[in-house]
UniProtKB/TrEMBL annotation, chain A:
Pfam families: BPD_transp_1 (PF00528). Gene3D superfamilies: MetI-like. This is Dipeptide transport system permease protein. PROSITE patterns: ABC_TM1. It is a multi-pass membrane protein. Belongs to the binding-protein-dependent transport system permease family. OppBC subfamily. InterPro entries: MetI-like, MetI-like_sf. The chain crosses the membrane at residues 102-123, 144-165, 205-224, 267-290, 310-332. It comes from Saliniradius amylolyticus. Residues 96-328 form the ABC transmembrane type-1 domain. GO terms for molecular function: dipeptide transmembrane transporter activity. One of its GO terms (cellular component) is plasma membrane. The keyword Zinc does not apply.
UniProtKB/TrEMBL annotation, chain B:
Coiled coil: none annotated. This is Periplasmic dipeptide transport protein. Transmembrane segments: none annotated. GO terms for molecular function: peptide transmembrane transporter activity. Residues 76-454 form the Solute-binding protein family domain. Keywords: Signal. GO terms for cellular component: ATP-binding cassette (ABC) transporter complex; outer membrane-bounded periplasmic space. The lineage of its organism: Bacteria, Pseudomonadati, Pseudomonadota, Gammaproteobacteria, Alteromonadales. The keyword Thylakoid does not apply. GO terms for biological process: dipeptide transport. Signal peptide: none annotated.
Length: 343, 540
């Protein structure tokens, strides 16, 4: 296990290093002068420009520049965002929790809805229920996430007037941002109308969460169904029936665990897909997460923000993937044979 | 296990989602007003920026002026000054100030005294005196006052006593009071400025973390997200009803409309022309409209031949049918312009002559001017949507066809907006479709910036037209304080314009304001800006 862990940490570090190289190179690949891109100072003869190019150490060659970049990166000096005027690091810290929160709730909803549905479909293999669930999941799976989000706005917000279309909570509630996770912030705050605020935040969560989770749910339904169908054909299931157990008992004692085990790793991997989808949905619902923030930065040609944002998002995905890998290894014996990373 | 039992497993989730619906926010909504605005303000001091977004976000919410316009009557009325008089010398104004007007008390500053003459002197001196401690703070540019050269006009601002201030001008200026009533002439707190200096804090906080006397006080601003204001409980004219005022920054117009429909906003900024019908037909929404104080026109570069010939200009004016342009471009949201003054102006001349569509006469005139064969010209169409002209490009295309009928071939030219303005300033055009929105009700605000000789140099005279006689009439009008006399003089000016035709006035567009039915007492201000001080929300 230790050897395995070391290999994974090694993989993580190397990948992160390549990422920093890529994000460092970005600044040279953008059109225009690197220092102008990073600081917004266009007069290359000005003293301010000279000071900045000294600070970025780009005059000493790209290698020296990279070392300075790494030092800045590690000390949290990620430059100033040109559109907000704040530190990129602080901006990311303020926006990332919103994205993670959205992805997390979407994951929860996906799991709670699609696992039971997948199991039902698997148990009713070949019957009407199965075809219906399978058909619905196909629709969900083939719908682009931004389109789905727009349709939901049209139906639930504009036509039925049930749910709000933008933000995380009505602006009327002044929730202090402590952790960045809105529900947690509301629960730990001393707002006079805490219940109402919590309720309002939940209402704001529904449409974005559903938009993100439907695609993932469709995926999980299909995986679960397949696995349940396979397992329920096994001999030990037949033996269990022969012992006189009811269908419920068979499923609970023998079927479920065996059916879910093989899909667990794939389930976890869905989280990264989810995070990507969440970033798209953020733009549509004006959800103040990292996705919305990055898109704004791209519109404004805010290079320091683009660079920092890209680095954080990709690092996050890599770290999560590797963490899941390690987790599965520890709790899922079958994966023990894999020492090397797999694509 | 049956499907039914499995469904039971899902029930908690379903009730959870259903339980979240509606409820709650309703009671709180009563206490707050949400305005969907179209962008971030550049500053919280409207003296520093003339953009509509900044003015909407700050002027009437955070501050007061000495005097203001009544949006209904268009008359000047007291605000922080209770009365004023012009001394016999014609250049000295005296203002009696309102007593017991408290400034905002906020977590970052607690005032120890009420508004008095010191605040007026500080505010005026800041923008008019280069040597003032605060003049260069936040960029040191005061665009509105600079455009009127007010710092040259105001010679002295001095105290008579604690609540009486004297403003002496260098020469008579009958539009001076009108300038004081604009959204830009707000009063700042001298005590706050002193405090920032004494505590050695950043002086620009005066513009970023504002203190004013207005109905709302500043709480927080998050770029690209929202501005939060709280009610000023001691507001001199009685506290505002909603406890909070929120600016939800929503740049896309369709998104603002969507939020207005769902009730996430109570009021939405600048609905697009194409959305007006949806708003009108929606049972929960109200659309107010008011003839705006603006004019859209077609200006000729009168220094270039053949446009230096008044006959040619007249012929071109006769060649186009204004009614068609109005129908096709403004969709019933404008009135036809006879002159450059809109009907809401007090100096508007009902009897004013105008040039009507008459292609036959137009051809004759061209022949008389020696252009019987016709000629080719260009029409510059402004590339952005402005209140006075929502679609200049389309307008130019229609005009192109009309001009072809009298043998004039026109080419349409458009550049990116800032480039367009720069080239226009350099007078590279033959003719241009553009317009003007007034900042105050004084008629001078239309004539002088658009058509006077000095305006040729400052770049706002798009017709490049300098007519000394016309300027003399304007000068006389400005010197006079008598409204009747001024009206007569402006009629005279109109006559000159009608003879000379440096530009063809086309339309005065309406101003629109869209809000939910629950919103009460939201005035629609003729020259832009929005005021939430007296607004309340009714339970529905």
């Amino acid at each position: 296990m230790l050897y395995y862990l070391l290999r994974r940490i090694n993989l993580l570090l190397v990948t992160l290093l390549i990422l920093t190289l890529a994000s460092y190179a970005l600044v040279f690949l953008f059109p225009g002068d690197p220092i102008t891109n990073l600081t917004g100072i266009s007069d290359t003869h000005s003293a301010a420009y000279q000071r900045q190019s000294f600070a970025y150490n780009l005059t000493q060659g790209w290698w020296q520049g990279y070392i300075t970049y790494m030092q800045d990166l590690l000390s949290g000096q990620w430059g100033l965002s040109m559109s907000t005027g704040k530190s990129v690091f602080a901006d990311i810290g303020a926006h990332l929790p919103a994205s993670i929160e959205l992805a997390m709730y979407a994951m929860l909803v996906s799991v709670f809805v699609s696992l039971p549905l997948g199991i039902i479909a698997g148990l009713r293999h070949g019957r009407h229920t199965d075809s219906m669930v399978l058909g619905a999941s196909l629709v969900g799976y083939s719908m682009p996430v931004f389109w789905l989000a727009l349709i939901m706005i049209l139906v639930f917000s504009l036509q039925l007037g049930l749910l709000p279309i933008s933000g995380r909570i009505s602006l009327l509630y002044d929730v202090p941002a402590e952790t960045g996770f809105i529900l947690l912030d509301i629960l730990t705050s001393d707002l006079p109308n805490q219940d109402a605020a919590f309720n309002d935040a939940l209402r704001h969560l529904i449409l974005p969460t559903l938009s993100v989770s439907i695609v993932t749910s469709a995926m999980i339904i299909r995986l679960t169904r397949r696995s349940v169908v396979d397992v329920m054909r096994r001999d030990y299931i037949k033996a269990a029936y022969a012992k006189g157990l009811t269908q419920w008992q068979v499923l609970w004692r023998h079927g479920l665990k065996n059916a879910l085990m093989p899909i667990m790793p794939q389930l976890a991997m869905q989280f990264t897909v989810l995070l990507t989808n969440a970033m798209i949905v953020e733009v549509i619902f004006s959800w103040p997460g990292i996705g919305e923030w990055l898109v704004q930065a791209i519109y404004m040609r805010d290079y320091p923000a683009i660079r920092g944002g890209m680095l954080v998002v990709s690092a996050l995905v890599i770290m999560f993937t590797i963490a899941i890998d390690v987790f599965m290894r520890a709790f899922y014996p079958l994966s023990k044979r894999q020492i090397h990373a797999q694509v | 296990m049956s499907d039914y039992r499995l469904l039971l497993l899902l029930m908690p989730l379903l009730t959870f989602i259903a339980g979240c619906e509606q409820q709650s926010t309703r009671q709180l909504a009563q206490k707050g007003l949400v305005y969907c605005s179209e962008g971030n303000p550049a500053t919280f001091n409207p003296q520093l920026d003339i953009s509509g977004i900044t003015v909407d976000a700050t002027s009437h919410q955070l501050y007061n002026r000495l005097i203001r316009y009544n949006p209904e009557t268009g008359q000047l009325e007291p605000e922080l000054a209770t009365s004023w008089l012009l001394r016999d010398d014609g250049v000295t104004y005296e203002f009696q100030l309102r007593k017991d007007v408290p400034f905002h008390s906020t977590p970052y500053f607690t005032p120890t005294r009420n508004f008095n003459v010191d605040d007026v002197i500080f505010t005026f001196d800041r923008w008019r005196m280069l040597s003032h401690n605060y003049h260069n703070v936040s960029g040191g540019s005061y665009p509105y006052f600079e455009s009127l050269e007010l710092s040259q006009v105001v010679e002295e601002v001095s105290r008579i006593n604690g609540y009486r201030v004297k403003i002496k001008l260098s020469h008579p200026d009958s539009s001076f009071l009108a300038s004081l009533a604009t959204d830009f002439a707000i009063i700042l707190s001298a005590e706050y400025a002193e405090y920032l200096e004494d505590e050695e804090l950043d002086k620009s906080l005066i513009d970023r973390r504002p203190i004013g006397t207005g109905p709302y006080k500043f709480a927080s601003f998050q770029r690209n997200s929202h501005i939060r204001y709280f009610r000023h409980p001691d507001y001199w004219a009685g506290p505002a009803k909603p406890e909070q005022l929120l600016y939800d920054i929503t740049p896309t117009s369709s998104m603002r409309l969507a939020k207005l429909i769902t009730g996430e906003c109570d009021v939405a900024a600048y609905p697009a022309q194409t959305e007006l019908k949806v708003i009108q037909e929606h049972p929960e929404l109200t659309l107010d409209e008011l003839p705006g104080l603006n004019v859209g026109f077609w200006a000729f570069n009168t220094k270039r031949p053949p446009f230096d010939n008044p006959k040619v200009r007249r012929a071109l004016a006769m060649a186009i049918d204004k009614e068609t342009l109005l129908d096709a471009v403004y969709f019933d949201s404008a009135v036809r312009a006879k002159g450059i003054l809109p009907p809401t102006s007090w100096a508007y001349d009902q009897t004013q002559q105008e040039v009507n569509y008459n292609p036959v006469r137009a051809r004759q005139l061209l022949e008389e001017a020696g252009f019987g064969e016709g000629f080719s010209m260009n029409i510059w169409a402004l590339p952005v949507q402005r209140p006075y002209n929502p679609n200049a490009r389309k307008m130019a295309e229609i005009m192109q066809r009309y001009l072809a009928e009298i043998g004039v071939s026109a080419r349409i030219i458009s550049y990116e907006w800032s480039n367009f303005r720069e080239r226009l300033r350099a007078m590279q055009h033959d003719s241009v479709l553009i317009g003007w929105s007034a900042d105050n009700v004084d008629p001078d605000n239309f004539y002088r910036p658009l058509l006077s000789c000095p305006a040729v140099d400052s770049g706002s005279n798009r017709a490049n037209w300098c007519h000394p006689e016309f300027d003399k009439v304007l000068e006389q009008a400005l010197m006079s304080a008598d409204k009747q006399q001024r009206t007569a003089l402006y009629r005279q000016a109109n006559q000159i314009l009608n003879d000379q035709m440096p530009l063809v006035p086309l339309a005065h567009a309406y101003r629109f304001q869209a809000y939910r039915k629950a919103v009460r007492n939201l005035p629609i201000l003729p020259f832009g800006g929005i005021a939430f001080g007296g607004v309340s929300k009714e339970e529905r």
